[in-house]
Specification:
The chain is of the alpha/beta class. It has 13 helices and 14 strands. 33% of the residues lie in helices and 18% in strands. The strands form 3 sheets. The protein has a 10-stranded mixed beta sheet with strand order 5-4-6-7-1-8-14-13-9-10, with helices on both faces. Strands 2-3 form a two-stranded antiparallel sheet. α3 crosses α6 and α10 packs across α11 (311-325).
Length: 416
Amino acid sequence: MTPDRKRVVVTGLGAITSLGNTIVEYWQALLQGQSGIGQITLFDATPLPCHIAGEVKNFDPANYLERKEAKRMDRFAQFGVCASRQAVVDAQLQIHDRNATQIGVLLGSGVGGIKVMEDQQTVYLNRGADRCSPFMIPMMIANMAAGLTAIHTGAKGPNSCTVTACAAGSNAIGEAFRLIQHGYASAMICGGTEAAITPLSITGFANARALSTRNDEPTRASRPFDRDRNGFVMGEGSGILILEELEHALDRGAKIYAEMVGYGLTCDAYHMTAPRPDAKMPARAMELALKDAGIFPNQVSYINAHGTSTPANDSNETLAIKQALGDFAAHVAVSSTKSMTGHLLGGSGGIEAVATVLAIHTDRIPPTINLDHPDPACDLDYVPHQSRSQPVEVALSNSFGFGGHNVTLAFKKFTE
């Protein structure tokens, strides 16, 4: 890390996932190897090829928001605002007139309010244009989770939204990291949010043959790195980090989960949906994150993999890790928490960064469940079935998105 850059630490976490609606519930379920995947209940999926998803359960936005306000938000924005408020409380971060312009928000989303768009298209076709909601546009646009989070927390600093498909949440965290490093903010509320379990979204991914159709075994359908994987399972939710400039955090006596030390991003420039067969660009994203952090490959303890459970991704990511870490790849614990949560698209980088930070904070590594028959092309240590207790000094979190977006975040144990 360049000496003139400010140090950045993680002081708060928030999560709403298919495994639970708090950080404690989410983390305990990950360590226990629980699956949050089941039959779709948000709509009748019977006519579709895929009937399963990782739905958020027992979520009531009224626990955080006025009911009238909640009704004017798409589900993805509700998740983002509520998880952000969790994180602010966890960090004990007081936002007031004296510091509000130094605290910002950066939330990523792959598709934004797709449910509202689908619903309003139905209204338009069946009932006419004059019956469409005047709130349709602000409920639909992807930046609204970031905007509404600022409204509900009072954060008046830098505010933006990344829309880089499945890398969006990680890009948001990385860009927030840069803003603090270079002095544009003292703290950032950042992460990803998504609520794309809708008829049109499921149909699109299913017709692209990206989704698992293991409908009779939902808890076993997401199986990253397994020989019998046949596609990803859609998830939903939000994961949020409070990133904070070190001196700002120390001055207010904040607890520190970990230090964020690196951010790497590249593009395959190859294909709309398929990864480059040579895996050079995701490998370079990892290499850039390590270089940014001033960390050598032999110092990496854990990688939270993108690990989607698709045939193309998992072998390609394995190759990328080998290229980035060389001989040390075989000695690094790698796991895919998507095996339990499903794939949150733009929200995945948020909840996976939360898991990566907690792995460092607790020295516990969540497992890859359903890894019954490892693919010969996926031959790293994927922490199968059960969590592992071991020192975690440095950890990476990978996110790769349609369009060739590759992002790696690097975190390490905090020491003064």
